[in-house]
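In pairs, describe these two lines:
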Amino acid sequence: RYFQQEKLSWHNQYVNTAIGDDCAVLDIPQDQQLCISIDTLVEDVHFPKGAKPFDIATRALCVTLSDLAAMGATPIAFTLAITLPSAQEDWLKQFSDGLLEIAQRYQCPLVGGDTTRGPVLVITIQVQGVVVKGKSLTRSGACVGDKVYVSGDMGDSAGALPIVLSDPTLQNESSLSALTQRFYKPLPKIEFGQSLFGTASACLDVSDGLLQDLNHICKKSAVGMKLDSQKIPMSVDLLAAYEKKQALQYALTGGDDYQLAYTAPHCERGIWIGEVVEGKEVEVVGSDILEKGFQHF
């Protein structure tokens, strides 16, 4: 009733068989490759218990689609596995409406999944996308001498977290801020990622904190990075809500921004924040922040 509706589950040029069979069947053109990513969101870990189902849904699909953006891929479909303590019709209606908004925005239909009963709400979404063969952006191509860029402001989602935790349903007018909207709807940079073809040498999306995620590029590319703390972009909303040092900590170590961070010899897009250098990890000039980012365990 809620996930098989035509507006949410439709056939595009890639979807041959969708909901109703044991598997979805996708048609992939010979000149393209399939990109697949999966994310699991657990109640009270990745979103607060009591959050609005619409907001939970937009967040869940956005953060998973962001992985496709980091590869420069075009979304073509997604699957959903959801564990529910109980099946409440109003909750399911609002949740499916949230999925619908993002699915239609990025032309990415729901093609299958699974529903189970369990003690806590758990949402797992797998996304599928396509990219021209040999063109996908990866973490392993950064070279000494490249510049380091980000696609936009950092730290907003981490700055929103204290507000979201204190008022999960955003009932208070003060909670309905630009920061909280960026927490629940971190729109994936699909077109931005595709614009980096032929320019970016390495790329990823920032999910666990800028420093921690850039270290993934350092490890894969066998390089170091030197960032200028004065160049880290922060929104007027974040700087209005927090002192500059706290805002910078959120920008460097707070996760869930889902901006793209990438390296390139030169790029007209994005914001330049540092250089790729010889070494093994990220160094921040002008900051004494030692924390790296979100730890999964």
